[in-house]
UniProtKB/TrEMBL annotation:
<feature type="domain" description="ABC transmembrane type-1">
    <location>
        <begin position="73"/>
        <end position="263"/>
    </location>
</feature>
<keyword id="KW-1133">Transmembrane helix</keyword>
<dbReference type="Pfam" id="PF00528">
    <property type="entry name" value="BPD_transp_1"/>
</dbReference>
<keyword id="KW-1003">Cell membrane</keyword>
<feature type="transmembrane region" description="Helical">
    <location>
        <begin position="77"/>
        <end position="97"/>
    </location>
</feature>
<dbReference type="GO" id="GO:0005886">
    <property type="term" value="C:plasma membrane"/>
</dbReference>
<dbReference type="GO" id="GO:0055085">
    <property type="term" value="P:transmembrane transport"/>
</dbReference>
<dbReference type="InterPro" id="IPR035906">
    <property type="entry name" value="MetI-like_sf"/>
</dbReference>
<feature type="transmembrane region" description="Helical">
    <location>
        <begin position="17"/>
        <end position="38"/>
    </location>
</feature>
<feature type="transmembrane region" description="Helical">
    <location>
        <begin position="109"/>
        <end position="130"/>
    </location>
</feature>
<keyword id="KW-0813">Transport</keyword>
<comment type="similarity">
    <text>Belongs to the binding-protein-dependent transport system permease family.</text>
</comment>
<keyword id="KW-0472">Membrane</keyword>
<dbReference type="InterPro" id="IPR000515">
    <property type="entry name" value="MetI-like"/>
</dbReference>
<feature type="transmembrane region" description="Helical">
    <location>
        <begin position="142"/>
        <end position="161"/>
    </location>
</feature>
<protein>
    <submittedName>
        <fullName>Carbohydrate ABC transporter permease</fullName>
    </submittedName>
</protein>
<keyword id="KW-0812">Transmembrane</keyword>
Length: 277
């Protein structure tokens, strides 16, 4: 009885405290980044100004006046939104075909697509750069959108496949008996029934595209440079400008953190869908 009572007490008080502790531990770097963004570059590295300092907005003013922040932000929005749309445009029909018209190779194809995520990006970096420069697409929105779509397509197809498998196949068969073609089945039957899953997939793909730094930094210079490039640019031979770097990073991750906060239910649903039967 004593063991049961202690277990019940831990479930009531211990687990919430543990969950809050882990949450604060993960949130602390973001909190410290925001705090540092209000310090000057000199104060950011002085131990005596670790906690007590005079807040300033100079880093944010410098970011918008001298670093052309809005151009980088616009490029991030264009590439992330376009890549998400293109990924869904390809992923929805592909997942539909695998879910409702499977073959003996379907599982092998899904595993092969997922295995491409294990490929080290550095292994194909230089061939990608040479190819992009050779066809004149280096530092263009088309190149970044294509790359972001391709690296996120396997995850999107896997998620959509899991959602679509939960839809009774009889509904699709009934549509075929009524004379609905393949595009009609996707547009009029599948998308309305799986709208929640498609929205969750789109949200996750958008976050992945927005946060992508490796490819956006190395495949752009000026014209298609995103916020990741702006963050990477706050370096100099003498070191990092921590105040300015924190301000740029806050402005870059702020929109996605806010989006994730308001859409956390959909994010959790998208990451755990099909895990428990």
């Amino acid at each position: 009885m004593a063991i049961v009572a202690q277990s019940s007490k831990f479930s009531t008080y211990g687990r919430p405290v543990l969950a809050w502790g882990i949450g604060l531990l993960f949130f602390f770097p973001i909190f410290w980044m925001v705090v540092t963004s209000f310090k000057t570059d000199a104060d950011a590295v002085k131990p005596e100004h670790l906690i007590f300092f005079s807040p300033t907005l100079d880093n944010y003013l410098n970011m918008t006046d001298n670093y052309d922040y809005w151009r980088f932000a616009r490029n991030s929005i264009i590439t992330a939104v376009s890549a998400t749309i293109f990924t869904l445009f390809v992923g929805v029909p592909a997942a539909y075909a695998m879910a409702f018209n499977p073959s003996r190779a379907t599982k092998d194809v899904l595993m092969w697509m997922l295995s491409t995520k294990m490929l080290p990006a550095a292994a194909v970096l230089y061939p990608m750069i040479f190819l992009a420069k050779g066809i004149g697409l280096y530092d263009t929105h088309i190149l970044i959108i294509t790359v972001l779509s391709l690296i996120n397509l396997p995850i999107a197809i896997w998620m959509l496949f899991t959602y679509f498998k939960e839809i009774p196949k009889d509904i699709i068969e009934a549509g075929k008996m009524d004379g609905v073609n393949t595009w009609g089945e996707i547009k009029e039957i599948l998308i309305p029934l799986a709208w929640g899953g498609i929205a969750s997939t789109a949200l996750l793909v958008f976050i992945f595209c927005w946060n992508e730094a490796y490819w956006t930094v190395r495949l752009t210079t000026i014209d298609a440079a995103t916020l990741s490039k702006l963050i990477e640019g706050n370096r100099a031979p003498e070191g990092l400008f921590f105040g300015r770097l924190s301000a740029v990073s806050t402005a870059a991750v702020g929109p996605i953190v806010i989006l994730g906060w308001f859409c956390q239910k959909q994010l959790v649903q998208g990451l755990t869908f099909g895990a428990v039967k």
